[in-house]
Amino acid sequence: MPDIFSPSKRSEIMAKIRSKNSNAEKIAFRYLRKEGVYFQRHYKKAAGSPDIALPRKKKAVFIDGDFWHGRHIERMNGREYWHAKLLSNKERDKRVDAELADSGWKCLRIWESDIVRKSSQLDSLKTIQKFLAG
Length: 134
Prior knowledge:
By secondary structure, this protein is of the alpha+beta class. The chain has 5 helices and 4 strands, in the order H-H-E-E-E-H-E-H-H. It has helices at 7-15, 23-34, 80-102, 112-116, 118-133; strands at 40-41, 52-54, 59-64, 106-111. The chain is globular and about 50 Å long.
């Protein structure tokens, strides 16, 4: 299916999508600070630049966007470009997790919508906190 936007309009739309400091990340950062958890944000010295990292404990947390990390990839039927793009993103995530594990890091991945959605927010935030504390 061809893109319905011109290349310049598509570029403008894509430029507005942020990879850092999403609403879910801000919620998680705020919660962890309130709970007194010290952490590094977007730690560039570890593979994949984890959203939340404890370098001394070698723990990394990634808050994955549902679309970009392929949570509902099965819904992408008929959109070959996006299906291929999301599959490559999922493969990259696996490589990053393996690279971190090989370096002695423990890794946790949380879906963005589980943090943003009120019904699952507290459970997700506590999962992150327990992971970092353990």
